[in-house]
From TrEMBL:
Xref: SUPFAM superfamilies: PHP domain-like
Listed Pfam families: PHP
Polymerase/histidinol phosphatase N-terminal domain boundaries: 7-72
Molecular-function GO terms, alphabetical: 5'-3' DNA exonuclease activity; 5'-3' RNA exonuclease activity
Source lineage: unclassified sequences, metagenomes, ecological metagenomes
Protein name: Putative Phosphoesterase PHP family
Gene source species: mine drainage metagenome
PANTHER family found in the cross-reference section: EXONUCLEASE, POLYMERASE_HISTIDINOL PHOSPHATASE N-TERMINAL DOMAIN-CONTAINING PROTEIN
Amino acid sequence: MPAAPNADLHCHSTVSDGTLAPAALAHRAHGNGVQLWALTDHDETGGLAEAGEAALALGLRFVPGVEISVSVGAQTVHIVGLGIDPTHPTLLAGLAQVRSGRELRARMMARSLEQQTGLRDVYLGAARHAGNPTLISRTHFARFLVEHGICGNTHEVFGRFLTPGKPGYVEHDWATLQDALGWIQAAGGHAVIAHPGRYRFNSTEELALFTSFKDMGGAGVEVMTGSHSAADFRKYAGMALAFNLRASRGSDFHSPQESRCDLGQLPPLPADLAPIWELLH
Ligand code: AMP
Ligand code: MN
Ligand code: MN
Ligand code: MN
């Protein structure tokens, strides 16, 4: 059997909430020994052309990707699409629809953060951190609050203000699971449940998510990812086997300053799992 490649199939550029441009990410991935690399910006494919060109020049195998925001009940679930055609009209229209809700959400977040912190012009301040005006995310607000000394780091901002139940959190309706999978599949891609260990489902709800995902033609689940503990690695390796899903590996790298897990640095996938990259050509 050929040795498994060093695959990193989940990360973010300045086109969503990362701090490195797509070409800079390609160089960092290559420098870290990544052999198979996907860029998966939130709800946006605008960085894939630059990423693909830079990867080609480096001799780095590139997989076009995206990470779609989905609502499942009251929770947000992220679905990564891998091997997509980034120009497919159905996918592009779907992603544009998902992005279109972000501005009003951001204005509501800004109002409540102004009330909480006494800062002014929070919307404009967060927007200055966003490399893409159609993609203002909670991360950009977190960076603005750190810049102004409200918190010491972005994780602290999320804990105090930006997670469900906290004062700067705004409920939002993202795509449906069915729509997100439909767009990914229309564009020739494979859908993967991102970082399942981060959701707050009880076990019945989690089984329901995996069951409907599989029934809709979902292909894989992230087993190795930057926010998973060793217990999560084991749990979701078991879920991949139980649901006959392929396993993925992706750091979810956002920034050299903020991310604990750098590109290409996760442990390898357990050898008994079928890797998602066997489907990617
Ligand atoms: P949004 O799409 O605007 O809801 O922002 C989601 C992004 O916020 C995620 O992709 C992460 O990059 C970031 N994020 C979510 N929770 C945390 C956390 N606890 N600490 C740091 N970043 C987080
Ligand atoms: Mn993010
Ligand atoms: Mn995510
Ligand atoms: Mn991500």
